[in-house]
Write a structure and sequence with these properties.
It is built from 17 helices and 12 strands. The chain is α/β, with parallel strands linked by helices and 352 residues long. The protein folds into 2 domains: 250 residues, TIM Barrel (Alpha-Beta Barrel), CATH 3.20.20; 78 residues. The two termini are 18 Å apart.
Amino acid sequence: MLRAVKLATLGGLRSSGVFRLVANSRWRKQRLLILCYHGIALADEHCWRPRLYLDPRKLDQRLELLKQGGYSVLPLDEGLERLRDGALPARSVVITFDDGMYDFYALAFPRLRNYGFPVTVYQTTYYTSCEQPVFNLMCSYMLWKRRGEVIADGGEVGLKGALDLRNEIGRHKVVRGLIEIAERENMTGLQKDELAARLARFLKIDYDHLKATRILQLMNARELQEVARNGVDVQLHTHRHRTPEDETLFRREIQDNRARIHDLISRQPVHFCYPSGVHRPGFLPWLREEHIVSATTCDAGLATRDSENLLLPRFIDNQNRTQIEFESWVTGVGDLLAFRRAASQKYVPSPG
């Protein structure tokens, strides 16, 4: 009900000219919208995780709106510099993709290049050398493929008792159990992939075929080098997609990430994105010690000159966002109406 009211309100504001008024205002010109994407669906990932993935047809609609609306799509470096200097062009936008998945290479990159839009990829790097699906995501996806079922005994994959796959809460519990097995046995990436393959056999899923689609895999070294050669800005996202609360371990994640990116594309990245949007006040001095220039969060908002450089807000676009919600944020209306800005600091499975 509340969502229907919100969408109706946005429709009324757009038809009455408020969207256009805000988009052309001095207020909007002093603000930078940083768009955040995670994945573009190769198959049905947007049905599995609609808060993480976007149907490629929706991405087409978003990019066309930016073009037709005359938005100034800037490189991240330039956008932040002009924000601080008070020299942004009208309707300024930066496009960012987290993680650096294969679907960026296959689906997003060609589209962005066709539009001539610059983009930053915050690249996590462990799986760029271990060319396997991301373990926890692949397990979750395969369990979703068997949604609605209750499997009597999970002993075949090392889990006790029945596996309730009827909703995301039950499936998440199974994934956590598999992660705990991998951590307890100190599994390598290859060993975790073997556990995922065992789960696939247990679920009667063709794992070799699934892997061949490159679903839930990062860009490999060759693909990352190709997009970098063609103008994609590759920045930091930690090596293992985690933010330890120990300073030494946290900084090692940055150092390993930076070293791997430098080895692959001969660049020294200085911009950072918090994995899963998780940030703590104690992280900021550690990032400064690592000479990080900016860090983006998953908190909602437009960046201003007064924004903390290491806690920059973004708009998280995904399958659940309608086109009018997206338009409200690029114009600035969405920011004016936002009442919940802080992103969750941990994954919360939905009841469905």
